[in-house]
């Protein structure tokens, strides 16, 4: 049963991708449907799990980080950046956030 469902899903994805690319109404810098599906199904859940783990690490190391004077910077890197990557991007875009900032920038 699971194998049949997987085959149906893969066939449906293979049919959707060529149709959406052949329509020609997408702008050139718009991600493909396949890339959006990969982002929604694989990348976002994995990045949410990583962000949750890093938030736990941040909570564990925060007292020491504040004593050392790097608490705010470590919170930006360990909490804000992973959650921003998970939720503040358009589907299928991996190089910039919705507000136009590149992914490599940790917001102030």
Walkthrough of the structure:
The protein is mainly α and 108 residues long. It has a domain at 31-87. Helix content is 69%, strand content 0%. The protein has three helices and no strands. Helix 2 (33-68) runs antiparallel to helix 3 (71-87). The model has no long low-confidence stretch (mean pLDDT 82).
* Structural Rg: 19 Å
Number of strands: 0
**Any idea what the shape is?**
elongated
- Taking pLDDT < 50 over at least 5 consecutive residues as the criterion, the unreliable ranges are none
* Average pLDDT figure: 82
Question: Could you say which structural class the secondary elements and strand pairing correspond to?
Answer: mainly alpha
Distance between the termini: 50 Å
What kind of sheet is the major sheet?
A: none
Report strand %: under 5%
Number of helices: 3
N-to-C SSE string, H for helix and E for strand: HHH
Give the proportion of residues in helices: 55-70%
